[in-house]
């Protein structure tokens, strides 16, 4: 394989990590998905694949990517970002189009633009329209921020983020939708564990799908971490960058995942239900990492 970051190996997966990766999901964009000839050669059948809807991406490209992934046998979960939806009529059109393809899952979020393009500011406003239920969306994920979000809480607290999760918890209790929290990627386990335990103490029991950056060059991860507002755990990358002997080596999330997996084993009620990969170093690289660490075999491995 030409990709310089390769993680295939014959050694057994680390104890506890294989089970922790069961049911992992991965995120793609239409333009990155186009580079993959057939996802069935990389991912276990039925893997949930999120499709990121970046501002400026035509809905036709989103639908085409969704149709392709459905046809290849994957569970498709498109992003529906509130701040790039023009109005309720457009939201209805988007959801109807996805439903026609057999897609009934969505990640509902505010979106990464500073100002709304239309009538919606928040994911809560989208949920309140009732259109997800009307179009048969039975699984809805919402955004989580273990390290806070300066766009939502400029003062550095997490008051607004926490209030929003409380609202979404209540929404899940009064509707039939299966809901979960999909988080931004992090690099340090201890803040994630503390955040998840605090949510549980506050009565928020939505399952957590923890965001994890797939293997990538260190420089790439630092760039994305700064762009996406990853806070305290950025120091993990900064410490590694200070060691010139490691600067050119790929960074993998193995240590981060092992620590979370060990905590889950010791505390079965711990709120993390699944791992969600952001393939910042490439879809193929991340898929190889999951296979090498005990995820279900890919079609290519079975052949």
From TrEMBL:
Keywords: Oxidoreductase. One of its GO terms (molecular function) is oxidoreductase activity. Gene3D superfamilies: 3.20.20.220. It comes from Pontivivens ytuae. InterPro entries: FAD-linked_oxidoreductase-like. The keyword Oxidoreductase applies. GO terms for biological process: tetrahydrofolate interconversion. It comes from the Bacteria. This is Methylenetetrahydrofolate reductase.
């Amino acid at each position: 394989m030409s990709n310089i970051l390769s993680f295939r190996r014959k050694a057994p997966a680390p104890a506890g990590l294989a089970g922790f990766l069961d049911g992992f999901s991965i995120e793609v964009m239409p333009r990155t998905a186009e580079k993959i000839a057939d996802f069935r050669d990389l991912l276990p059948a039925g893997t949930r694949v999120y499709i990121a809807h970046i501002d400026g991406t035509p809905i036709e490209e989103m639908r085409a990517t969704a149709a392709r992934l459905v046809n290849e046998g994957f569970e498709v979960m498109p992003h529906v970002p509130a701040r790039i939806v023009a109005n309720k009529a457009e939201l209805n059109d988007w959801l109807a189009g996805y439903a026609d393809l057999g897609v009934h899952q969505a990640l509902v979020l505010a979106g990464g633009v500073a100002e709304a393009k239309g009538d919606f500011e928040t994911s809560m406003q989208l949920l309140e329209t009732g259109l997800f239920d009307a179009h048969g969306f039975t699984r809805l994920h919402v955004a989580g921020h273990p390290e806070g979000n300066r766009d939502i809480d400029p003062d550095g607290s997490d008051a607004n983020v926490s209030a929003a999760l409380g609202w979404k918890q209540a929404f899940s209790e009064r509707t039939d939708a299966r809901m979960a929290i999909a988080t931004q990627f992090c690099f340090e386990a201890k803040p994630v564990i503390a955040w998840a335990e605090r949510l549980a103490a506050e009565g928020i029991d939505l399952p957590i799908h923890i965001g994890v950056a797939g293997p990538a060059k260190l420089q790439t991860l630092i760039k994305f971490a700064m762009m996406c507002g990853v806070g305290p755990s950025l120091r993990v990358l900064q410490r590694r960058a200070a060691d010139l002997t490691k600067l050119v080596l790929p960074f993998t999330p193995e240590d981060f995942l092992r620590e979370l997996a060990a905590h889950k084993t010791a505390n079965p009620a711990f709120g993390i239900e699944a791992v969600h990969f952001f393939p910042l170093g490439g879809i193929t690289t991340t898929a190889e990492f999951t296979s090498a660490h005990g995820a279900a075999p890919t079609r290519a491995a079975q052949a």
